[in-house]
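Morning!

As promised:
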Amino acid sequence: NAGVTQTPKFRILKIGQSMTLQCTQDMNHNYMYWYRQDPGMGLKLIYYSVGAGITDKGEVPNGYNVSRSTTEDFPLRLELAAPSQTSVYFCASITRLTQRMNTGELFFGEGSRLTVL
Amino acid sequence: AQSVTQPDIHITVSEGASLELRCNYSYGATPYLFWYVQSPGQGLQLLLKYFSGDTLVQGIKGFEAEFKRSQSSFNLRKPSVHWSDAAEYFCAVGASNFGNEKLTFGTGTRLTIIP
């Protein structure tokens, strides 16, 4: 059981380049999230999705886009990379957040470290 | 909107000593509260959670946390720390409105254990 898989694990981009961070989960989870983690800042929610075809902005969506065409996949797109987007990105999933449906445990990927120069 | 404050950026504790990590939250309704731990270079692992009921919750690795509504707090405790507890700890609060279910994390507390 692979859980949440993120690719790539590491990437260096030049300013203005574009790329997509891939996230796939094989647990049939409805809810998926993208966070970025910066030193001393904790995890900030970029975008989230409560099911296929439904996405919504989190705290820090600017400069990013997402799509959710299937239950399994939730890619994060950076259109014009900027140095401020240098960070570690985590994808996570859960059946549903509330207690009736699950244990409340978010399953995290191992992270993608992105550097923009 | 919900928010979480972890006032201690870095805590150093001697091995075998007790530990308390502070967490304060802001949320208009009954919160869902979590503590996660992150070892270096790893993703996050759930330590424990509070949804309702008993305000003292037990988690993995000997950790516990107490929900205090009057203080809007959810502090994490361990009676005797081990060197393997050195990590970063994140408190999180969950919004529970259907279709708006997301976790907001605090900025984290880095725990260092000294022999």
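Residues 8 and 112 of chain A are 6 Å apart (CA to CA).

Hope this helps with the figure draft.
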